[in-house]
Amino acid sequence: MRRRNFIAGLASVTTAWPLAAHAQQPDKMRRVGVLAYFPEAQAILAAFKRRLVDLGWTEGRNLSIDYRFIDDIAGGRNKSDVQRDDFTEQIRAAAEDLVATAPEVIFASSNVSVAPLQKATSTIPIVFTQVSDPVGSGFVASLARPGGNITGFQGYEPAIGGKWLEVLREIAPNLKRAAVVHIPNVAANVAFLQAARAAGVSSGVAVTAVGIRSAAEIEPLVTAFAREPDGGMIVTPNPLTNTAENRALFFALAARLSLPAIYAYPLTAASSGLISYSYDIVAQWQGAATYLDRVLRGAKPADLPVQAPTKYLMIINLKTAKTLGLKVPPALLAQADEVIE
User: Fold this and answer.
1) Tell me, what CATH number does 196's domain have?
2) How confident is the model at residue 41 (pLDDT cuts 50, 70, 90)?
3) Engineered SS bond to 182: which of 189, 207, 310, 311, CB 3.0-4.6 Å?
4) Are residues 194 and 321 in the same domain?
5) Once rounded to an integer, what is the mean pLDDT over residues 136-158?
6) Is 241 in contact with 110 (CB distance < 8 Å)?
7) Cα 234 from chain centroid?
8) Does 88 fall in a domain?
9) Has residue 80 got a pLDDT over 60?
10) In the chain, how many domains are there?
11) Whether residue 328 sits in one domain with residue 195
């Protein structure tokens, strides 16, 4: 079952820029740089491009887009372009290389792409999406008044860490221990961990930090945590945890180790994850396309408020729950936006 959800904040952004303003398009080719992840989800990239077309920007006609996909970097497919082993260093190099091409505006997806871009330029406008806690991460001064050259669409606020633990406890009531898989050098990931720890104190769940810096660390660290009973896992958002290969690894580990797990990215019918609690990623990318349009037409990022999700989506996989011996409470099923059966 599925319910359609609409993001009010995005609607307000879209309606604030009348379509009539796009009737006439300049012939000049405008240049946009992209440092993003999740390109394997073609629906996301296609929706982003469709929104740009709706706003009058067609790639190859009046818009040139230089793509740098973090999935390729994280998966090692760009070794010929970036000769570094460290994931963070690879992204930093890609960010600096993109800034060196001097695009008119840069679209960035995730905290790990915005951080090196911020260091590389204070003048090129940057529009972000899927960025958690942009204020705490030091990207903007405030959501209402970003200041500087950066703005965009916030993903998660720090308190979501506590919500993920709450939802995990609802679907796995015997939970006594929870591993928070996170990237230690990403401020937002650390904030999620702290929020989960605070929630764990009040709910009687011992929260363990499982910090990873490379894909090679995922299996041994998660396996070590699972040696004791009554455990569960929270997988926080980051390109390193969210490549197709690493998502599949988390699903496989959760099944093999009998770990109930909650994910910060939407599950699909083809995945075997237990439950996800996330926002609408497609809507975020479409909103970012709207902000790119406004910047290309002269708006300053400092004057464009950071938009936050107004609706979160819960997806539950009943097949996986059955495999783990979990009976999903009816109240939780009633809250689900989608149930995989």
Assistant:
1) 3.40.50.2300
2) low
3) 189
4) yes
5) 96
6) no
7) 15
8) yes
9) no
10) 2
11) yes
In 3D, which of 212, 264, 245, 215 has the Cα closest to residue 40? Answer: 245
Contact 104, 30 (CB under 8 A): yes
How is residue 326 written in tokens?
């979990």
Q: What is the distance between the alpha carbons of residues 115 and 111, in angstroms, rounded to a whole number?
A: 6
DSSP 276-288: EEE--HHHHHHHH
Domain identity same for 225 and 142? no
135 and 202 co-located in one domain: no
Do residues 198 and 166 make contact, with C-beta atoms less than 8 angstroms apart?
no
Cα–Cα distance, 140 to 117 (Å, whole number): 13
- Asked if 239 contacts 112 with a C-beta cutoff of 8 angstroms, the reply is yes
Write down the pLDDT at residue 17.
44
Q: 3-state class of 328 per DSSP?
A: coil
Q: Residue 30 carries which DSSP code? A: E
Question: For the segment 174-200, what is each residue's pLDDT rounded down to a tens digit?
Answer: 999 999 999 998 999 999 999 999 999
Residue 28 CA neighbour count, 13 Å, CB half: 7
CA distance 219 to 253: 7
Segments forming the whole domain that contains residue 330: 160-278+313-340
Binned at pLDDT 50, 70 and 90, residue 16 comes out as very low
In angstroms, the CA 259 to CA 252 distance is 10
Q: Residue 182 and residue 208: Cα distance in Å, rounded? A: 11
Question: Using only C-alpha atoms, what is the Rg of the chain?
Answer: 20
Question: pTM for the full model?
Answer: 0.82
Question: What is the edge-to-edge ordering of all strands in the sheet holding 261-263?
Answer: 206-211, 177-182, 231-235, 261-263, 275-278, 313-317, 338-340
